[in-house]
Amino acid sequence: MEIKNGQYVLNGGVNALDIADEYGCPVYVYDFEIIQRQYDRLVDAFKGIDLKINYACKALTNINILKLIKKMGAGLDAVSIQEVRLGLHAGFLPDEILYTPNCVSFEEIEEAVSLGVKLNIDNISILEQFGQVYPDYPICVRVNPHIMAGGNSKISTGHIDSKFGISMYQLPLVERIVQATGMIVEGLHMHTGSEILDSEVFLNGAEILFNAAKSFDQLTYLDFGSGFKVPYKDDGIETDIEDLGKKITKRFRQFCTEYGRDLTLKFEPGKYLVSEAGYFLVKTNVVKQTTSTVFAGVDSGLNHLIRPMFYDAYHKVINLSKPDAKSRIYTVVGYICETDTFGINRKISEIQEGDILCFKNAGAYCYQMSSNYNSRFRPAEVLVYQGKAHLIRQRETFEDLLKNQIELEVLRAESVKV
Asked: Which of 75, 91, 188, 277 has a CA between 20 and 30 Å from the CA of residue 97?
């Protein structure tokens, strides 16, 4: 988003305020050109090897986003059977979907098998059960490399006390299960966490996976997960994808030579693809000054954007209505009956009631984590594609709050008597 002729516009010249006027606030807006840019950057960084990008759709599962990401050439990383079904509905073929569940029932695993998708198993118990029932169904094994990484303890998934993956120290047991059941292990997988900056984290994990791979002679791919960091501030740091690409590509080629054949290298970015493409537009309801703080209260809250409260995540806030106004210091808060503070002491162009504010980096884990807390409606979603703004999800209504509730006849009758 940039300023042109005194207005904030998205790619294709779409005016951000026009979107707010047409579709109302709050509203999530996604700029597809940014998603395409991020995907192309990844592909360019890992040239010279057989690369497959699987989009981690838990970041954003709107069906239109899934269809466009498939059109780019990506596969899908799914973590629930519902995400698997969304992927199939969007047109992904079963073998383009890698299902990576955690702590799900064996019945859900069996449902994935019935759908024919690739399966990633991350615990010994399920591995044993699966090997006895489906020894001929190729699987991937998720390895926990015991690497502490990630921008927040809640998104670090590869450390020794994590619930994710099979400990690298249990790999001899995995090998025995495979030998005893005749299972086909076609892939090995790891994911250390999100918001990783240091290329060495990936390289260290890669060596663990390379060493483990020597014990499995039917591999066709290695999956290094993702966790690439994107900048959240103007001077924010990010993963150097180009540097990582050079280092990983070189080492991966060496390993393939050692292994005896070429394998596919897989990554599963979510935030990296869609975070910067997303904007969350809200309207200022009140400007309230206390003895020491000026609050800008908006028509949203933790029910729509929980990351600042849940992860202490930073989202830059800009005033779309007054791009050139003098800056003042505001604490931006929501309308929920909890402390739902989006940002404290932020320098923002002077805000008046009715102004439209924008939270940046709102493409990943924002709408996906929204709720009906306080019985508020979830917002609409808009996609900017080919120079036009398209509504891709309607704002919820009161009927949506009642949709799945069942009113007891006995209570209805009693209310009539009263």
From this structure: 277
